[in-house]
Design a protein that fits this description.
Length: 75
């Protein structure tokens, strides 16, 4: 079995590549932003300062118990 050690230069390059990858992941994480043009009904996120996506804000579903639903339909 051949075991090779990394030279200090190769180790420094590997550490730098891992650090740059970590920074890239932090910058690429989507961040919520406000859009005054679209209004409050829209939700926008910006990824890596380049890509901005917007989607209609989801309205929460109203939960009712089964007993209340049956009571309303019987009149």
């Amino acid at each position: 079995m051949i075991i090779s050690r990394l030279s200090p230069k190769a180790l420094a390059i590997a550490v730098a590549v891992v650090a740059l990858a970590g920074v890239a992941l932090l910058l690429a994480r989507p961040k919520p932003i406000e859009s005054a043009v679209l209004g409050a009904d829209w939700e926008c996120t910006q990824t890596a300062f380049l890509l901005t996506t917007c989607a209609p804000r989801a309205t929460p579903a109203v939960e009712t118990s089964r007993k209340d639903a049956i009571r309303q339909t019987r009149g």
